[in-house]
Design a protein that fits this description.
Chain lengths: ~220, ~220
């Protein structure tokens, strides 16, 4: 069979629609997961030892097991205890928890990167803890973690493809489906790969712009 | 209803799971080694004096790092039989090729970073001593760069352990696929995949500890 990209172009709208689902589940899990990640980070710094252990255990478990197995547990395992989630909610739940574990570590590194002298100086100026955190720690911390957060966002986006295994109709699942129908493997996966690559590149590019314009002083 | 974890028959199902874990460890080791070799070559390629070599190396590393590993695996799974209709390839080999291509791109990026971390002055000193490009790489840059690359390299190896679970999708019988096969027999996915997750943790967590230990030693 000769290579003919024209033969698969009519399927581009189907692919773009599926890419939309990939992006939707990524954006949702990134934001919910990052907020959860702040709480996990706070848990790790808590004065209560059991809370610290719980947060630490959560981070280690989710960072040291594959997303695919986590999705199998949620999608196939949870119905055993009466919790039934459809493919979208299962993927969203798995990616959210996964992202929380990773962002908790990113926030820790970012906040620890703000020199203690700055915090002490703010104290010497009579700033309250909330003021110190808001005006002194937060902005440099966000700027410091922005590259790592962007990286995590891209990794999360790429791993949204795992949702296809539990039959979420995102881009990878659409590509596998179109491949079966057209048997044009090279063309389908080349276009699919380019769609993934372009989306990652756009995310990376906008983060660099944000770094340059939003966080300069 | 039986308590989920009690419904798992360890005597019957542990041997296939451990065999699957063996395949996972073997795949990660093989593609980790292949990926490191590819990574060193392409990492050096990205700082090569010849511009086309640099472009080629950066197209490979950037494109592969911008697409999901599952896409690489599915592409190879469907494309290899089309290209070589008479080859009898086992899925484990396809999985190994896919994971190596994937690992190579990330390792190349890690090596690029650690090569760049070597101060320029050292290269200029090498130049002053009359070393050519390859000699400078061999005697000045690489011995130091490889050391810097160890902690992020271990970090990526952990990611590779987890990414390797996706080879189950192209029917390679790793730990995850062993788990799927068992659930089709015992209909106890919760208990089975908890055991599978625990086995992944046993493979991956020592690597995490090793990475942290090495980083502390470097500091």
């Amino acid at each position: 069979m000769t290579i003919d990209f024209g033969a698969v172009l009519p399927y581009l709208p189907v692919m773009l629609k599926a890419l939309g689902i990939s992006i939707e589940v990524t954006v949702l899990s990134f934001f919910i997961g990052s907020v959860l990640g702040i709480f996990v980070y706070l848990g790790r710094r808590s004065g209560l030892a059991p809370l610290r252990w719980l947060a630490h255990g959560f981070i280690e478990v989710f960072r040291n097991t594959p997303l695919l197995v986590q999705l199998y547990l949620i999608y196939f395992g949870l119905p055993e205890v009466g919790i039934n989630l459809n493919p979208f909610w299962s993927t969203l739940a798995g990616m959210t928890l996964n992202n929380a574990a990773y962002t908790a570590e990113i926030f820790r590194a970012g906040i620890e990167s703000v020199p203690n002298g700055l915090v002490e100086a703010a104290g010497a100026l009579g700033m309250r803890f909330s003021q110190t955190f808001r005006f002194i720690v937060l902005k440099p911390a966000i700027r410091n973690v922005l590259p790592a957060l962007t990286n995590q966002f891209i990794v999360l986006f790429l791993f949204s493809s795992v949702g296809s295994v539990i039959s979420l109709n995102e881009l990878t699942s659409a590509l596998a489906d179109l491949n079966q129908r057209t048997l044009r493997t090279l063309e389908i996966f080349t276009i699919g790969g380019i769609l993934y690559y372009l989306t990652s590149a756009v995310i990376a590019g906008s983060s660099r712009l944000a770094e340059r314009y939003l966080f300069r002083w | 209803m039986v308590t989920p974890l009690l419904s798992f028959d360890f005597g019957q199902f542990m041997p296939p799971l451990l065999r699957g874990a063996g395949v996972t460890v073997g795949l990660v080791l093989a593609s980790g080694i292949a990926g490191t070799i590819i990574g060193v070559v392409f990492g050096i390629g990205r700082s090569a004096p010849l511009a086309p070599v640099r472009w080629l190396a950066s197209i490979y590393t950037n494109f592969i790092r911008g697409i999901p590993i599952l896409i690489i695996l599915l592409f190879l799974y469907y494309e290899i039989p089309l290209l070589f209709p008479y080859a009898t390839f086992s899925q484990t080999i396809t999985a190994m090729i896919g994971l190596s291509v994937y690992a190579g791109a990330y390792m190349a990026e890690i090596f690029r970073g650690s090569i760049q971390a070597i101060p320029r002055g050292q290269l200029e000193a090498g130049e002053a001593l009359g070393l050519n490009y390859l000699q400078k790489m061999r005697y000045v840059v690489l011995p130091q760069a490889l050391k810097i690359a160890v902690p992020p390299g271990i970090g990526f190896l952990i990611a590779l352990v987890k990414a390797s679970s996706l080879v189950s999708v192209i029917a390679a019988t790793d730990l995850t696929r062993a788990g799927r096969i068992i659930t089709s027999q015992n209909h106890a996915p919760l208990a089975t995949f908890l055991v599978v997750a625990a086995l992944y943790f046993v493979i991956s967590y020592p690597l995490s500890l090793l990475g942290r230990w090495y980083e502390r030693r470097l500091a």
